[in-house]
UniProtKB/TrEMBL annotation:
It comes from Xylanibacter rodentium. It comes from the Bacteria. Residues 199-301 form the Glycoside hydrolase family 2 immunoglobulin-like beta-sandwich domain. It is an enzyme of class 3 (hydrolase). It catalyses: Hydrolysis of terminal non-reducing beta-D-galactose residues in beta-D-galactosides. Pfam families: Bgal_small_N, Glyco_hydro_2, Glyco_hydro_2_C, Glyco_hydro_2_N. This is beta-galactosidase.
Length: 962
């Protein structure tokens, strides 16, 4: 390795650790000039020529930093699939050119050019002279000493030749044959950095929870008698004599020393209280003058790994609620910005996660953000199922750890991913990390940490159930399409959290990595099934699983409570924070009255609303982490007038922790209340029933006409004032068998009834037409009082869908308004996070994760839970359905399956019932990477057993076509 690169590695960490300097004095501070933008938001144009692919072969302008594909150059390649039929690894190169000036005053200082990230090989020349060896590796920063190559006060020319594919086979194996989009270019910032001739080249800190500050400082140009002066947050400085303890760099001009100081009264850093302090380091000459001054932000905390126990922070055991995240945005690829990444970190925290992992070191500003906002980070050496050679890997470990070691958010290191481990590199992490954080091997059991990927719910012998090592899966569950990370998370987390060896885990993954392709007009491409793996969409559109994760991982958990007439305003609440007392948060309640379309006969939107009739604060118990107490709210005098109680918890800064809602009325009680709003029917006639031989059986009243097939009992036609409402084709049995035995009709006051009896799983269905024109369906299922059995189909039988379906043309539907759980659809094993309320959404045909320009969330089609009522919106055929049965699922049409890169359907969902609209007691679960049989109990089909004398199930619905 040349002298310039070796020296630059020490200078490099000073660049990132100390920032841009305080400009206390131009002679003692660090001066920085950016040659590029700081990120995607303020990129600077350079001259550029690409060797192949789009817009190749001529000089043009390109933004720096950027990925050149996203600027319209080169070719697109998806990592590990570069060898698929017809595919190849794009291997173009790009030549960058930039002229710049440096101040004359910099002459005599040490000037570095710093590249924070280039993919993948970079050869740098300044004024036609090589700056040093070609740098290989796309995810770590590097720099060169170019002091002797510059023309001070004059124009200089920088050229960088970038090879997309590395000349080193192991670099390609570790980085370029991975499961992600491949990009080329100078995609992270580039800047010049000038230091005094005598300076601090590097400082690695270990700021501990007891206030001890250990600093390993590398200096250059220092002679005997120099001291290091330290100050934290302006407190009285402490000085220590510098003495050489080692020289790992092999560069004779760099001397490494170790100094220790103590700072009482500092505030500790943890992810819930991310207290950061400003450390000032001054290099003081024997005559008392300051040769160099730098500043950096530090967090005082102690992180440790205890074998057969777990990870600890400040003496408290951690539970990692983590998500895997790549540095990625559709329009800019791997090039990010502080603004964009602040949004991502806030998005992660808002869903109550506390940790991030990626397959490579992130941008420097992302770690700064995690430090400031309080997110733990698992920092990983690149190596996706293949690893670097020892020669290359040793350098990259050094670049990575020296660059990032001072960030308090990093709680552990990872050496590669899924077999991409060069074990010869494991001991090198501690050489550059004074905190000696633990090193893990993601997906493997290594050095006391079992990071097994995608374990089944049961986990199995040798893992969590019967293991004796710390269990922290670095990938579990899977967010591909709507097989989202929320599916079965409730089961997994409850099961695993019972074991003291469980240290938490990381969901795969945060983002659908859809790239906006410049060769396709900016359309989003996820390479078929390879990249739509996110809890959120490519532009951070929240999918349903985001809300499930937020609910399951909420640090405030409310014990099951039924808000009935016996509810006195108290409920049990648990503090699942790691470091915060519950008194640091606050909670409010809202009492809502939800009106339905019934009073307006389904014709007036204005009368449908969820109105707040009372609100106030909830007193939270100030319990410590891990404890449970009683929350109290004073019930308002009009509490009985409400339909829904909504609770929302907030952090001290006002961020939402989670929202819960509780119905105050059962479905039949709500229906009875709403029916009281119907005007008196005294002026109306009576309903009629006609059963003419050979004609349909007809119920009719108030302009509503419902026709039934006398052979099958099916509703075949509905009209309102002669206008057809195309709802019918049912009740079609779902998950059961039934056969019509008999139809009888009778009057019940003003109402007309059809009583249909069946053999099979259905005992009877009573259809009722009221004088107002409401059509009711009262079905009794699985009634075995007479000892009937149902051909074995419902005796100890697994059921995934169970209920009734009807037909209704999807083409006529424009949207839906409903009172129930929402606003997103649910699966049997993903219902948490959706709250009961009044919701509305327009029709859309979004295929979750398939970014074809039609992404609208929440998705329209699918299963919706806890139906009270739903109004199908249509320009020509609207109607409303009400449920008197608690807990019904409302299936709305059949979602489309996604397609792979070849246009073939990908089967992600269990089969939907026949028909278009269904009312169901049971719905299927959704798998998440593992087969559905290997997920938790909520994913499994129901097991229905019928005993003699059972009263069975009852489904009562009302249809309003008026």
């Amino acid at each position: 390795m040349t002298k310039s690169i070796i020296t630059s590695l020490f200078i490099l960490s000073a660049t990132f650790s100390f920032g841009e300097g305080r400009n206390v004095n131009k002679d003692i501070s660090t001066a920085v000039i950016y040659l590029s933008g700081h990120g995607a938001d303020d990129a600077v144009e350079w001259d550029f020529r690409c060797s192949g692919g789009m817009n190749s072969g001529r000089w043009q302008k390109i933004d720096v930093p950027s990925c050149w594909e996203q600027q319209g150059f080169g070719e697109y390649t998806y990592g590990r699939y570069y060898k698929k039929p017809g595919g190849r690894a794009s291997d173009e190169n790009g030549l960058y050119r930039r002229t710049f000036r440096v101040p004359s005053a910099w002459n005599g200082r040490k000037v570095e050019i710093v590249f924070e990230g280039v993919m993948t090989d970079a050869a740098v020349t300044v004024n036609g002279i090589s700056a040093g060896d070609v740098h290989q590796g796309g995810f770590t920063a590097f720099s060169y000493d170019i002091s002797g190559l510059l023309r001070y006060g004059k124009t200089n020319t920088l050229e960088v030749m970038v090879e997309k594919q590395s000349k080193d086979k192991s670099v390609n194996s570790a980085e370029r044959r991975a499961d992600w989009w491949l990009f080329g270019g100078i995609y992270r910032p580039v800047y010049l950095r000038a230091l005094p001739a005598v300076h601090i080249a590097h400082a690695a800190v270990d700021a501990r929870a007891d206030g001890t500050l250990n600093v390993k400082v590398g200096t250059e140009g220092v002679t005997a008698g120099y001291t290091l002066q330290m100050s934290v947050d302006g407190m009285a400085p402490q000085s220590a004599q510098l003495s050489s303890i080692s020289n790992r760099s092999g560069e004779s001009s760099v001397t490494t020393s170790s100094v220790t100081s103590r700072w009482p009264g500092i505030s500790l850093w943890d992810p819930e209280h991310p207290n950061m302090h400003t450390l000032i380091l001054r290099l003081v000459a024997p005559d008392g003058t300051v040769a160099h001054e730098t500043t950096q932000r530090v967090g005082f905390r102690t992180v440790e790994f205890r074998r057969r126990d777990g990870f600890y922070l400040n003496g408290r055991k951690l539970t990692i609620k983590g998500v895997n995240r790549h540095c990625f945005y559709p329009e800019t690829g791997r090039t990010t910005s502080r603004r964009l990444d602040v949004g991502d970190v806030k998005l992660v925290k808002a869903m109550n996660a506390n940790a991030i992992r990626s397959h490579y070191p992130p941008d420097a500003h992302l770690l700064d953000i995690c430090d400031s906002l309080g997110v733990l980070y698992l920092n990983e050496l690149p190596g996706w199922q293949n690893h670097y050679s020892t020669a290359v890997g040793s350098r990259i470990v050094r670049e990575m750890v020296m660059h990032d070691a001072n960030h308090p958010c990093i709680f552990a290191w990872a050496n590669g991913n899924e077999g991409g481990f060069n074990t010869a590199l494991d001991t090198l992490f501690a050489c550059y990390d004074p905190q000696r954080r633990h090193v893990i091997h993601p997906w493997a059991l290594f050095d006391g940490v079992d990071a097994h990927h995608y374990p089944a719910y049961q986990t199995g012998v040798g893992r969590l159930a019967n293991g004796n090592e710390v269990f922290m899966p670095t990938e579990f569950l899977h967010s591909q399409y709507d097989k989202g990370a929320g599916t079965s998370l409730d089961d997994y987390w409850a099961n695993w959290s019972r074991n003291p060896l469980f240290a938490g885990g990381f969901i795969w993954a945060l983002i659908d990595e859809g790239v906006a392709r410049t060769d396709r007009g900016g359309s989003i491409d996820t390479d078929g099934t390879n990249a739509p793996d996110g809890i959120v969409g490519p532009h951070r559109e929240r999918e349903a699983s985001w809300y499930t994760v937020r609910d399951v991982w909420s640090p405030i958990q409310i014990a099951p409570v039924a808000v009935t007439s016996s509810f006195d305003g108290t409920f049990r609440v648990s503090n699942n924070y790691l470091f915060s007392r519950l008194g640091e948060c606050w909670m409010k309640y809202e009492l809502l009255s939800v009106t339905s379309p019934l009073a307006g006969a389904g014709r007036d939107d204005d009368n449908v609303a969820a109105r707040t009739v009372a609100s106030g604060c909830v007193g939270l118990p100030d319990v410590a982490p891990g404890e449970t107490g009683t929350a109290r709210m004073t019930l308002p005098d009009n509490f009985a007038a409400g339909d829904l109680l909504r609770l929302t918890a907030f952090t001290a800064s006002g961020d939402t922790v989670n929202t819960w809602s509780y119905p105050i009325r059962h479905s039949d009680e709500y229906w009875a209340k709403e029916r009281l709003a119907i005007p008196d029917d005294a002026g109306l006639g009576i309903s009629t029933v006609s059963c003419s031989h050979g004609a349909p059986v007809v119920l009719e009243s108030a302009g509503v006409r419902a026709e039934f097939n006398r052979e099958s009992g099916m509703l075949v036609n509905v009209s309102m004032d002669g206008r057809t409402i195309p709802f019918g084709g049912g009740p079609l049995p779902v998950g059961m068998k039934m056969r019509l035995l008999d139809i009888k009709s009778r009057q019940d006051g003003r109402d007309a009834l059809l009583v249909m009896t069946y053999s099979g799983a259905v005992d009877s269905i009573v259809w009722r037409m009221t004088a107002e024109g409401l059509l009711g369906m009262d079905a009794v299922l699985l009634n075995s009082r007479d000892g009937k059995r149902f051909g074995g189909q419902f005796f100890d039988t697994d059921v995934r869908n169970f209920g009734f379906s009807f037909t209704y043309p999807e083409t006529l539907c424009t949207g839906m308004q409903w009172f129930g759980r929402g606003p997103y659809r649910v699966w049997r094993n993903r219902q948490r996070g959706q709250t009961i309320g009044l919701w509305q959404k327009e029709y859309n045909n979004t295929v979750t994760g398939q970014s074809d320009g039609r992404l609208v969330y929440p998705e329209f089609k699918g299963y919706h839970a806890n139906l009270y009522w739903a109004r199908m919106l249509s320009a020509t055929a609207p109607f409303t359905v009400y449920s008197e049965t608690d807990g019904l699922y409302f299936r709305v049409f059949t979602p489309e399956e996604p397609t792979d890169s070849e246009g073939k359907k990908v089967h992600t969902m269990q089969p939907f019932p026949e028909g278009d609209l269904s009312f169901l007691f049971e719905i299927p679960g959704m798998r998440s990477y593992k087969p559905i049989e290997q997920l938790g109990p909520q994913a499994q089909p129901s097991h229905i057993r019928i005993n003699k004398g059972d009263e069975g199930l009852r489904m009562k619905l009302w249809f309003d076509f008026r």
